[in-house]
Write a structure and sequence with these properties.
Shape of chain A: elongated
Distance between the termini of chain A: 73 Å
Number of domains of chain A: 3
Largest interface: A-B, 65 and 65 residues
Number of helices of chain A: 12
Strand content of chain A: 15-25%
Structural class of chain A: alpha/beta
CATH superfamily of the largest domain in chain A: Response regulator
CATH class of the largest domain in chain A: Alpha Beta
Strand order of the largest sheet of chain A: 2-1-3-4-5-11
Oligomer: homodimer
Number of strands of chain A: 12
Largest sheet of chain A: 6 strands, parallel
DNA sequence: CTGAAAGCGCTAACAC
DNA sequence: GTGTTAGCGCTTTCAG
């Protein structure tokens, strides 16, 4: 890349016959420098089109004003909302975000984290993939005392703060609602039980059914990932087994969309042939046919809080601790899971 | 931020009683170094948990392996798809993306661009806000010979490549289809005419109507932004003027969703009371009620191509030129804009 | 094959 | 107020 030489402090200094330190201080509005000099310097700097070199500044400052973000995907309503909120909050506080996308792939996840560490981000915000198990890299981050906060998909007991939705309670509420509507035969397209959300959402489901003395048919519970394809494959599998429950509880909203897709192909009507409720929703849910009854997660709040907590840790306003922050969720009633006729 | 001292080349060098140059070369697999030494070095490096400092490397290399991205929003199906594709393509080619979000705000846009320049990104990928007019900053980028590519929302004739959908042809196709379905009274919730997409999409609309000798009612054409709120306000305004067209052509998919929202509040049925067609779509469109007939843009292709072109320019494989690359679009027939009964 | 020296652009500490 | 010096961690050049 043939770069036209960028203007440096030195260039300005020479033209003004002063030292580069003076320029550096003047541009940063340092009290050492006289107003007259400051004016001269800033005038010339803008005239020359000077752009400070953060790379150089960061090298001496040992601080990059930069936060590394690792998410499993972008094109997913929950994440794009969290991400938007993370960006807004960070920018307001003068931090840049360097986002990477693991694509639900643990190898990529590790590679990205390493790359972010190499870029010397001041802290990390991570939502793990659907099958992250190896915690070595996180332990080494702990050892280097680099601030890190997990959100939504977390690993607990590693010494990092975790911010998440009230997954168990949300599922519990949702299933109880379905029971109150008269449903008795449930199926669950669940997430891998090694993940916090896979496990907690299953636990809430189980708790509600147990309390109501409704037995589960193991054939109706499938375990998989969190994407559209998992929902699609899930319904296909149940259909082929010829054992559809009355209602399917999906672990995420994309999984529910996958069920919609499969149902369309199979010519099954939702909610008549198979009903669907899901954890998570989307702003456009109100226009779906039928709109899905599900649990709303406070995505922007989670993003905002994650950034704020992280910056506080970076700036040493709060200690790095192993806290869980559980955000309350709400039940959102749509056109699925309607009252069963007796 | 109290950083536990990070391991440096020097630390490794001392323990091995060699110079840091040797370590640097060994770690980069430089042919100068003997295999035996390389093994010793890499072994110790991983043992100590050494993470190379890209900041330092970048400072001497004058290259950051980093691309700056500026988008107007994230939580919008078209952009989240483009962004996902940009990330995937860049990561494959070993570039990191530093994304910023202008939120359709020109001040923020400029601030972000400056910040990316300060971070010395190797190149820029930009989709401008709905009301960017000032081109000064782009001219200064041109002068510094920093590679830049505009996508979707572009400014032409500034000496940068522009990648976009075939906006005019898409609108033209869509309106012709509506005409063939029997529609005669059109309205347009258009984008600001100063933007390329606002103008081209209007031009395609106008061309189709003119050719069919259908006159426009100026009251039915509104000009605004590209967001849900613009669609919402648009229908509200038309409704209050008591002058609804048969069918509304919206400049983006979010604008169409805004129309849906307003229609719901006003108790207007789509497509019976007011019909809707839009430029742009979304993967979940097929589940909307009714699904929208509209134009599909090749979002991932645009993202991929933008990154590839940019990297080629960065690596001087192709010259920086002022080309327009127009991507073909396709008509996507949904449940709106159905055959009119005679 | 290995190393000493210089420099990337900036900032902090201290001297003038 | 302003300047000198040193150094952030790495790479490149060139000498041994």
């Amino acid at each position: 890349m043939k770069i036209v030489k960028q203007i440096t402090l030195n260039d300005i200094a020479k033209k003004l016959n002063v030292s580069k330190v003076t320029i550096s201080k003047a541009l940063r509005d340092h009290p050492d420098i006289s107003d007259a000099m400051k004016k001269k310097v800033t005038a010339l700097a803008t005239k020359l089109g000077y752009t400070p070199n953060f790379i150089a500044r960061n090298l001496s400052a040992k601080k990059t004003q930069t936060i590394g973000l690792v998410v499993p995907k972008i094109n997913h309503h929950f994440f794009s909302e969290v991400i938007e909120s993370i960006y807004n909050t960070a920018h307001k506080k003068n931090y840049e975000i360097i986002m990477t996308v693991s694509q639900e792939n643990t190898k990529q996840e590790i590679k990205h984290i390493q790359s972010l560490l190499a870029m010397r981000v001041d802290g990390l915000l991570i939502s793990i993939t659907e099958n992250t198990k190896d915690t070595d890299i996180f332990k080494s981050i702990k050892q280097k005392e680099i601030p890190l906060i997990f959100f939504d998909r977390v690993i607990e007991n590693l010494g990092f703060n975790c911010i998440m939705s009230d997954d168990e309670d949300g599922s519990y509420q949702l299933i109880n609602y379905a029971i109150s509507q008269g449903y008795r035969i449930f199926g669950h397209l669940g997430g891998y039980r090694e993940t916090n959300i896979g496990l907690s959402r299953f636990n809430g489901y189980k708790k509600a059914l147990d309390e109501a003395n409704i037995s589960q048919n193991p054939e109706h519970n499938l375990i998989g990932g969190f994407s559209v394809s998992d929902g699609y494959n899930g319904l296909m599998e149940l259909y082929n087994k010829k054992t559809l429950p009355e209602i399917l509880f999906t672990v995420t909203y994309p999984v529910a969309l996958g069920v919609y897709k499969a149902a369309k192909e199979l010519n099954l009507s939702i909610p008549n042939d198979i009903d669907v409720i899901s954890f998570g929703d989307a702003s456009y849910n109100q226009f779906l046919n039928p709109s899905i009854t599900g649990i709303h997660q406070p995505a922007s709040e989670i993003g905002k809080l994650a950034v704020e907590q992280l910056i506080n840790q970076i700036e040493e306003k709060i200690p790095v601790e192993d806290n869980r922050i559980i955000m309350p969720v709400t039940l959102n009633i749509g056109q699925t899971c309607i009252k069963k006729e007796k």
